Amino acid sequence: MDKTITWRIILLILSVIIPLGVILAAYVFISNRKNKQSTKKWIDIGCAISFIYTTAKVIFLIIDLRHFVLL
Fold it and tell me: Which residues cross the membrane (predicted)?
């Protein structure tokens, strides 16, 4: 029981760090390009989608963890 809580916390941390790293890497790649006006719209859309996905995943994992701990 203790191991599953630890693994869920590790997965929660990883589910936050990995998308943020992808967003940062994509932002640095796009900002280093010369013609960034045409690609800026797409990177903004990608960042928004990734942010919404990450937020939803964190909320559901917190709810799941809370339910698991209360049991």
Answer: 6-30, 42-63
Contact 20/47 with Cβ under 8 angstroms?
no
Taking CA atoms, 67 is separated from 1, 21, 25, 35, 71, in Å, by 13, 29, 35, 49, 6
Q: Which of these, 22, 31, 26, lies nearest to 53 by C-alpha position?
A: 22
Diameter of the chain by CA atoms?
A: 55
* Total-model pTM: 0.42
pLDDT in tens, 4-56: 777 777 777 777 777 777 777 777 777 766 555 656 666 777 777 777 887 87
- The residue behind tokens 């006006």 is 37
* DSSP category for residue 71: -
Domain that holds residue 32: 2-70
pLDDT given for residue 7 in this prediction: 75
